[in-house]
Design a protein that fits this description.
By secondary structure, this protein is α+β, with helices and mostly antiparallel strands. The protein is 26% helix and 32% strand.
Length: 145
């Protein structure tokens, strides 16, 4: 996993988010997704990885999202700062988590609101694989809203 200690968001994350709620909705950021974002710990389950990736999208942490994307499907680059400049992620609802050994699926609904225009929902059932103790996002199937 890429070291995020050089991320421009790190000072904000460490200093400002000690009591901030985690964007994924599962407690405080400091005790939820932050340890994964700053490379102190690995998400122990596919669901934890999916939650940390959602939080990374919500915070504009492109490097983290790329580093947790399986090499077989990972894009060459990702600019979440541009996405954040156009709107914000509003919330996450995990519908289910189906672990099967070193493979797992997670179904979720994420809500996004552009600065202009109506809010939208991303409903996906994502596939994950674990390699050498680390979970990676592989791909997913979108549900029509």
């Amino acid at each position: 996993m890429k070291n995020l200690h050089s991320s421009p968001a790190l000072p904000y994350m460490v200093q400002k988010n000690k009591s901030l709620l985690c964007p994924c909705g599962k407690g405080s950021y400091a005790s939820c997704c932050e340890p994964f974002h700053i490379n102190v710990a690995l998400p122990p389950t596919a669901e934890a990885l999916m939650r940390s990736r959602y939080s990374a999208y919500a915070m504009g942490l492109s490097d983290y999202v790329l580093s947790t994307w399986h090499a077989s499907t990972r894009p060459n680059q990702l600019d979440l700062q541009q996405e954040l400049a156009q709107g914000q992620w509003l919330g996450l609802n995990v519908k289910g988590h189906w672990p099967q050994g070193k493979h797992a699926e997670v179904e979720f609904v994420a809500r996004y609101k552009p600065h202009s225009g109506p809010a939208s929902r991303l409903h996906e059932r994502s596939r994950f694989v674990q390699e050498n103790g680390q979970w990676f996002y592989v791909d997913g199937d979108l549900f029509s809203s």
